[in-house]
Amino acid sequence: MKPIDFDDFLVLWNERQGLETPDLHVRMARWLAECWRKGDSALLLMAFRNSGKSTIVGLFSAWLLRDNPDLRILVLAADLALARKMVRNVKRVIERHPLTAGLRPERADQWASDQFTINRGLELRDPSMLAKGIGANITGSRADVVICDDVEVPNTSDTPPKRQDLRERLDEINYVLVPGGTQLYVGTPHTYYSIYADSPRTDTGEEQPYLSGFKRLQLALLDRAGKSRWPGRFPDDAIDAIKRRSGPNKFKSQMLLEPVNIAEGRLDPDRIRPYNDDLAYTEANGEATLMLGAKRLVSASCWWDPAFGAPEKGDASVIAALFTDSEGSYWLHSVRYLEHDPALAAHPDEGTDEATQLCRQAAAFLRDHYLPAVTLETNGLGRFLPGLLRRAITAAGLSSAVIEKASHRSKDLRIVDAFDAVLAAGHLHAHRDVFASPFITEMREWRPGARARDDGLDAVSGCLLSEPVRLPRLAPPAAKDIKACANWRPGRQGFQATTDFNIQ
Known about the structure:
The chain is α/β, with parallel strands linked by helices. The chain has two domains: 6-254, Rossmann fold (3-Layer(aba) Sandwich); 269-465, 2-Layer Sandwich (Nucleotidyltransferase, domain 5), CATH 3.30.420.140. It is built from 16 helices and 16 strands. The strands form two sheets. Strands 8, 9, 10, 11, 12, 13, 14, 15 and 16 form a nine-stranded mixed sheet that branches. A seven-stranded mixed sheet has the order 3-4-2-5-6-1-7. Strand 10 (287-292) and strand 11 (295-305) form a beta hairpin. Helix 2 crosses helix 3 (53-67), helix 8 crosses helix 9 and helix 13 crosses helix 16 (455-465). The longest helix has 17 residues, at 80-96. The radius of gyration is 31 Å and the shape is elongated. The relative contact order is 0.09. Residues 469-477 have low confidence and may be disordered.
């Protein structure tokens, strides 16, 4: 067949359908064709909802098969129905486009709803085009082109386990795609932790974006000047109506292509102010001082919400340290997720049972952050730990106090009460290490009443709701191997005043 440019192929199809071809579609078509000619094999096309991107990719598939009938194209989507929709679209194009005459096979069994095989020279096991849901088994399939059409939707991305499962299934493409084959992702982001994100999410342990190295074309509804990219279908009044109906988060996600959670979150980690300073403890002229950069810290609170903390199982055991300065700002310096080692716990006679391991880690946390006390939540497992924790603190050479606290209010209410005001006021700061922990993920995912990880939120809310600990300076312990840390909090000394009052 005589070669034809893809944009001409597209325009001719639209003319036959009585449709105009907007500049937006021409831009998509030229980008796809240029990438194909250059041999770019990893592509990401992001365009706003109802932009016609899947239709363009379907026409692109028909154009590819016209140019090379021996190609094998696999379409993956969030579910089989969506994948079939693209396959049916390509079938209609092949049937009706004036430049694809002769591709349709004579045998009806080669022209099914979820797969078809056009007339081609090679005898291949795999069809010309095949539709599969992302959860289907694709082992044994082979493809020259894999199109991932809207594989990320709320049902595949609204929880961390679903996002992990999605990534693992997408990784299987590497075993399906032939050497030199092309992957093409088409979609819009549905979560802050989107596979389409252009920067790594360090709080999940990600070191690079999932689609790192993919060539991107990103077409938001509004261009840099704030004008509609498709004014014929999306004039200004239509855009305003979409904003009102969908809400700010969904509009940002689906129309502006910004990776944010579609559901409106109660806690916004973007309101937290990051900092990089480390704690600096000094003793001079008989006075102890704890500094954070140029800020002198005046009080601290530490909260431990204990759990067995087995790796990847059950609730997390979280301990958090929060400091305040003289201006009333809060400095969340550390949120540590404690885990016991199951191998050591298998030999409890050696003093390495789960509870003892966790208490030793908590004592080390107190030492590292110069904390005068820790509040231990005694609901559940916590009621068995105060004695063990005090023993671990003593063994570590510390004089920190253990405050036992039973929580009687709903966890959701505690979290809302703790975070709402301080986030709204912009008074909460967090160390860079906190932003690399699961705590930030918990904030983005948390919804009142929803089932999601909230162990870090519970510990930090305990710190925020606790009154600052202001204990008097303790006398040095009698044991020679225990050294008490000097009290770095100002105002703890007594003051004796001389007066003329004569009190009878």
